[in-house]
Amino acid sequence: MYQFIIRRLLALVVLLLVTSFLTFGLFILTPSNPAALACGKGCTDKRIEQINHTLGLDDPFLVQYGEYMKGLVVGRDFGSGTATINCPAPCFGRSFQNGEFVYDVIKRAMPITFSIAIGAAVLWLVVGVTIGVVSALYKGRFADKTGIGLSLIGVSLPIPFTGLVLIYLVAIKYAWLPPPDSTGASLFKDGFTPWWQTFILPWIALALLYSALYARLTRANMIETMGEDFIRTARAKGLPERTVIAKHGLRAGLTPLVTIFGLDLGGLLGGTVLTEAVFSLQGLGFTAVRAVLGQDLPMILGVTLFAAFFIIFANLVVDLLYAFIDPRVRLD
Amino acid sequence: MALTKRSARLAAGGLSLALTVAACGGGGTTDDAVDPLNTGDTTAPPTGGDTTPPPPPEPKGGTVELLVGSEFEHLDPQRNFVTNSGNFGRLIYRTLTIYKEVPGQPIEVVGDLAEEWKSNKAFTEWTFTLKDGLKYEDGSDITSADLKYGIERSFSPDLSEGAPYARDFLDCPGYKGPYVQGNNGGKGCEAITTPDDKTIVFKLNQPVSEFDFTASLPTFSPVPEAKDTKTEYDQRPFSSGPYKIQSYNRGQSMVLVRNEHWDQATDPVRTALPDKWNLSIGINPTTIDQRLLADSDPTAMSADTAVQAQSLGRLEQPGIAERVVPGTSQCIRYLSFNFLKPIMQDKALRQAIVYGVNREDYLTARGGPQFGDYVSSVIPESLQGFAPLPEYEIPPTGDPDKAKQFLAQSNYDGETLTMASLNEGQALAASEAMQESLGAIGIEVQLKQLAEDAYYTTVQDDKAAPDLIPAGWCPDWPSSSTVIPPVFGEDTSNPGQASVFNLSRYNDKRAGPQNNTWERMDEIRRTIPDPEEAGQAWQDLNAEIMADAPLLPLISDKFIYVHGSAITNFEISSNFGEPDLIKIGVDPEAAA
Question: Measured between alpha carbons, how far is A50 from A56 in angstroms, rounded to an integer?
Fold first, then answer.
């Protein structure tokens, strides 16, 4: 087991290195001119040259990449003379757009994306699995049709639509909740109430989307599992129906759910772009879009590396969970 | 300049052209303008503009909820060169001079930190005297040394994003800012001297008759050396204005509270009515629309986000209509004809294009009549001396018959003309509209699509620039001297060649024989002291140049704002093209 984990962690590091190299390479090789964007109107060639130099873009590709990697490990100094400022390790560079340390921006953005992703995930798991179980148990009957029908409607509603409607109705027209922005977004700094008030609408919007998938998956697995012999055995043993369903039925059907969940959550942690844009929440996704539009290489790299890390890490956790759920699985 | 989708950048790039001999400019009166003893030093009498502060309109108090669409890139005044930060920045810092905008009147330069100022006859030495009672947020005095230090910061390559004017005009070549070890032996930029705490003298490397306008830029804002956190100054600038930052979560929120040491009596333009400003940053423009239209919070408003196109239909509704405020910026969009291309040197062809472009389709592509007014001149309406040009007052759909007549007279023989265009969005749709209307009268046009970051470098490149170039210009400051010379004038470092912003390459010697319009531009600066007269002279010169059809004026940008019902004194600053934040107030009764 531990060998497995160590190997996977090493693979994680290698993958991150490859990702960083590719991202860097793609950026440098595609025709782009971040200095021109940073320069704005009234740009002269001399100023572009100066900006290119400040941003380090006039160095050869490998030098730039090397500097970046070095910064990750031991930190980096920016600026000159008495304005020199040290970016401590891990240093993800400085934003081309406003000079902030990328790591600071990501540290600010991460809790927001986490709050969105994890809250939504819990919600859609609970809702989706419940609907799925109920639909499976009452297969073919009203509860089944309604449950699946509702979740299908949910999956057809795109976030820009649901989000804006929710914001309008809940936060503006009836003002049940304050309007969406990032002011209440930190659980620890702002308190529990502002926090859930900020995120409840994005959670609902996302959960509407994802529940359908989980409902159907759970339903299909449950139906299959509940038809197995060992369920009949459990019932014959006289176990209460609840235990039969939960402990024996559901657990057996969990494996595919865990896989999908891991991938979905990992992906969301990397940046719930649409949701963040619609709800004016400056998480990783929002930051990523802004970085791309501004050709902000250090920020793009930073966000990509973090997103890649979460996805890979989520996959690792999923694999570990398999072994935990299903004793037949051996990690090797 | 490319008016980008996000914040329209503060007008930039209008370097004052080198003048041979000084002219009387500025706002002084004419009688005692010349020093009879010819001691050579001071000419125009001390000017300070109208520094009497207006009585602050009631009511005072309340909190404004400011909804900000795009994050402030830089709040550091020496790095601040973008419209939204420039407008907002005036709440937390003061500059040597500032614009006074009264609706219906041309914009005036008045003293902000400066009590009065004067310059020598040659306009190469300017002396400003600071007012009394100027204090920072901690009660300490604002001194000329702080101003010198602040301006010096703009020379540092670490803080290079700000306006370039201090670097360009001040005569301290090779100075690289105060962060270089020793700061030039403690002397800093030697072109700035501070004989005492209240006086600051600038030595310029070229005559700049409107240096008092230049001194209104954020670069000319004081920063005490002890408070300089250098590249971190963005996080928490030290306030010299009516408000100070209580908290700032970058990209998320900010709270401004009063700077109790700011004295209204010293400030000619800011009313500082609200007690507090609550900023929510990074709000989705659609959400801003929804919130403001619904008036869910009567104390809410936005400065950088105008009403979105999709909400325009709701603006007539009762409850909303009273809170709608349209405004124009001083930005004009036009279609330049590139004289370096032999085919564009054919005047009849240019005139055919002038009458052939369907400006209505162009405006529709840009969002419709709410987003622009047709113009006949590159000089914006709010500037001194503006007058429409009769021969460019063409029906919005163009005049196809006249266009075809001119086309017949020209040497056009079916060639395909190239037109630059951004590669996406409204700008592309707008270029396509122009292309189509020209096709309809028989002129073949092909679009050369360019990415945003490559647009200006391409159209400014003599080899790459196409025949037709859509462009836009916002004056650097409210004077035609920052419109006509950049758009039609000479490149001072390459005499005989057009300024890099003169996309038509009008009067460029490589495009043909030169006329004397460039000399006439110099002459206006040199010989006409009075702003009104100068405005008229620029207008006359403009009319002459435009008779040659170097470009087709298209529209001036327009936009519409909605604000909460408790917001008072909501006026659009034509200088910033945004609601003027320094005038805003809150009505406490409506806010309740």
Answer: 10
